[in-house]
Amino acid sequence: MLERGKQVVVPAGAGAPPAVSATSWLVADLDTGRVLGGCGPHQYGTPASVQKLLLAATMMPRLDPKQTVTVTDEDMNIEPGSSAVGLVAGGRYTIETIWLGLLLNSGNEAANALARLGSGTDRAADGVRAMNDEAHRLGALQTHAVTPSGLDGKGQFTSAYDLALIARACFAQPTFRRYALTEQAPIPAQPAQRTKGFLIQNENQLIYRYPGALGGKTGFTDLARHTYVGAAERGGRRLVVTLLGAESAPKRGWEQGVSLLDWGFTVPRDASVGRLVEPGELTATPSAAPALAAPGGPRPAAASGPAHSGSGWLWSVTVISGAGVLVLLGGLLWRRRRRLP
Prior knowledge:
Mean pLDDT is about 85; it is low at about 285-340. The protein has about 350 residues and is α+β, with helices and mostly antiparallel strands. It is about 25% helix and about 25% strand. It has helices at about 50-60, 95-105, 110-115, 125-140, 160-170, 175-180, 205-210, 255-265, and strands at about 1-5, 5-10, 25-30, 35-40, 70, 90-95, 185, 200, 215-220, 225-235, 235-245, 275, 300-310, 310-320, 325-335. Helix 2 packs across helix 3. The protein has a single domain (about 20-275), classed as DD-peptidase/beta-lactamase superfamily (Beta-lactamase), CATH 3.40.710.10. Strands 1, 2, 3, 4, 9, 10, 11 and 12 form an 8-stranded antiparallel sheet that branches. Strands 13-14-15 form a 3-stranded antiparallel sheet, with no helix packed on it. It has a two-stranded antiparallel sheet with strand order 5-6. This is D-alanyl-D-alanine carboxypeptidase. Keywords: Carboxypeptidase, Cell shape, Cell wall biogenesis/degradation, Hydrolase, Membrane, Peptidoglycan synthesis, Protease, Signal, Transmembrane, Transmembrane helix.
């Protein structure tokens, strides 16, 4: 199936997914790891603020949400005009407040603070290194963080498939799930800095407008365009959608996510075109490559399986059509991360 020149892979018998402007996307089951469909899932892209999910997956288990910490001048070093929640240098906040500032308002200063605080060295750069280590552990080998916030940096990239792995790790944490569904939160006054308290609102419209929403994260930079991760539950089934490189017309990023979630819930529960790898799986002992479908064999719309191939990870997808068999290599993910050209 082609969508505006892009190859879309879906299970046999599944309806056609909606057309979206995103250059790549993926829909998967959060619980089983089944991939229900995708378009360029291993295509390199720029994350923008959905990178904050990797920060959450890495640092949330390390930090005590009740601890009160001090924001530093270094934390406030963000690109002028970029997203900020309104923390102030010298201000005293709980870790939970900073997480809410990160996930509700996409605060870039909050990202700097959390990367620094969770680094173990009080250095945000070491926090970014920890994020990359966590991405590797999760199997997100097409992900490399340069900034904790997702502000553009040279050599920073991810993929729709990797974002699904990262989102799955986030939604496995009860604290993250609670934050992701929080509609508003107070940012306390800082008398010593002469700032008043105020309320922040969750910017992810999914939680207000989509029944069964579990939350997610929006992102945008001029380079990345619109990026989105969202999850929802329906009939005891939890799905996640990830998309990169979207334009806001005719639908905004979260609305494109909604369209793909609606489609995903129509796909049979046992159908898939592949699966999400488990944490640590790609650093385990290599296994044999799966057999690919051959002409005259079974006729699913797509069949895939993970395979180690010497120095890398190969996700193969076999698409059966009336014209015959087309073997698509979704992407070769090298253990040694490479930079974008």
